[in-house]
From TrEMBL:
One of its GO terms (molecular function) is DNA binding. This is Site-specific tyrosine recombinase XerC. Residues 175-355 form the Tyr recombinase domain. The lineage of its organism: Bacteria, Pseudomonadati, Planctomycetota, Planctomycetia, Planctomycetales. CDD domains: DNA_BRE_C. Keywords: DNA recombination. It comes from Thalassoglobus neptunius. InterPro entries: DNA_brk_join_enz, Integrase-like_cat_sf, Integrase_catalytic, Tyrosine_recombinase_XerCD.
Length: 358
């Protein structure tokens, strides 16, 4: 006898409450407000689970849309900074999976093959540089590998996806990323008067410390060790914190003057640089920091520049005054994992440089 055919229960409207629901084996399951994105997502998850239970394999009837939903639930709890805030990787996965679902959301995971991955690769090439495309394809492979562990993807799928090669320099029509260039000091100095006091202080401190934009915008009063001649700042969140690497930023006399002015009336838990119309417990976003600069550039008819370029400018100026090793030391760049001896030498060297320029 042929097995009983699985019938997908329809999504229905409960008129008196305005709720969306589905009926399965005489029992109603409610998903939320009718026609809302949340209700549709819950309904699709519900149907996918029924299919897995009916099929008994747990993998053949899983759609790529469901895989994406389940992975983002995992990612929301996994890609977090120590303080509980989401890392930038979460937004990257959200954008990548949005493109995946747009093209193949209703396909089954068992149907996803190298040809579809190449199609997605070509879709990314419309708006992204080659290196970004390669990172995004690696994220897609990771999602399907994660799906194998969760019994949402057949083990054969990730194995096949490995055969799609990354895009290589000079062997693809995808554009190359533009290198981040330094900003001429003349342009920066002409921009500064048009910036708000807090944004101006952030720009000036970046130039004096060669810090990254997020290291400055997330700086709190209590993060600074002001006990020595050179102040020390050890950001808890930085580019390589997930690798277990420490980061030490030294602040010389000129940088200390900027900070002293910005910290007036603030508590240890307050951000040193906060939006003028917000409380000190709320920092600037990176986008707001960038927009504040580019708007002034546009208003004054100056070449546009961004906070990321300031680190390059600072490195260039340090290299001019000292040498390349001095620049590497202040920026915190290393080729190997930092050892305690190497770190001590770097901090001492950075302190000497800050006393001279910062």
């Amino acid at each position: 006898m042929a097995p009983h055919q699985f019938r997908v229960p329809n999504l229905c409207l409960h008129k008196s409450s305005g709720q969306a629901y589905a009926k399965w084996k005489g029992k109603r399951t409610y998903f939320g407000k009718w026609n809302s994105p949340e209700a549709i997502e819950k309904y699709e998850t519900f149907i996918a689970e029924l299919r897995r239970l009916h099929d008994g394999t747990g993998e053949l009837n899983t759609t790529i849309r469901l895989l994406s939903i389940e992975f983002m639930r995992h990612a929301a709890d996994y890609y977090l900074h120590p303080d509980g805030s989401p890392t930038s990787e979460l937004a990257c996965y959200r954008a990548v999976l949005k493109a995946l679902v747009h093209l193949f959301g209703e396909h089954l995971t068992c149907e996803f093959d190298p040809a579809k991955l190449i199609c997605l690769q070509e879709e990314f090439a419309r708006n992204h540089a080659r290196t970004t495309i390669n990172r995004n394809i690696s994220r897609i492979r990771y999602v399907f590998g994660w799906g194998v562990i969760k019994n949402l993807v057949p083990t054969s799928v990730p194995d096949k996806l490995k055969f799609v090669p990354p895009l290589k320099l000079g062997r693809t029509k995808a554009r190359e990323p533009e290198p981040v260039a330094s900003v001429p000091l003349e342009v920066i100095n002409r921009t500064l008067p048009g910036l708000s006091p807090s944004i101006r202080g952030m720009v000036q401190l970046q130039l004096k410390t060669a810090a990254r934009p997020s290291e400055i915008r997330l700086l709190k009063v209590g993060d600074l060790d002001t006990s020595g001649e050179v102040w020390i700042y050890c950001p808890g969140r930085h580019k390589n914190s997930f690798r277990g690497k420490s980061r030490i930023i030294t602040v010389g006399p000129k940088g200390q003057q900027i900070l002293t002015s910005a910290m007036i009336g603030k508590e240890p838990g307050d951000y040193v640089f906060a939006p003028d119309n917000a409380t000190p417990t709320k920092p600037y976003t990176l986008a707001a920091y960038r927009r504040a600069i580019t708007r002034v550039c546009d208003r004054l008819a100056l070449p546009r520049w961004t906070p990321n370029q300031l680190r390059h400018t600072a490195a260039t100026e340090i290299c001019k005054s000292f040498d390349q090793d001095a620049s590497r030391t202040v920026l915190g760049h290393t080729d190997k994992s930092t050892t305690e001896i190497y770190l001590d030498r770097d901090v001492s060297r950075a302190a000497e440089i800050m006393l001279a320029i910062g």
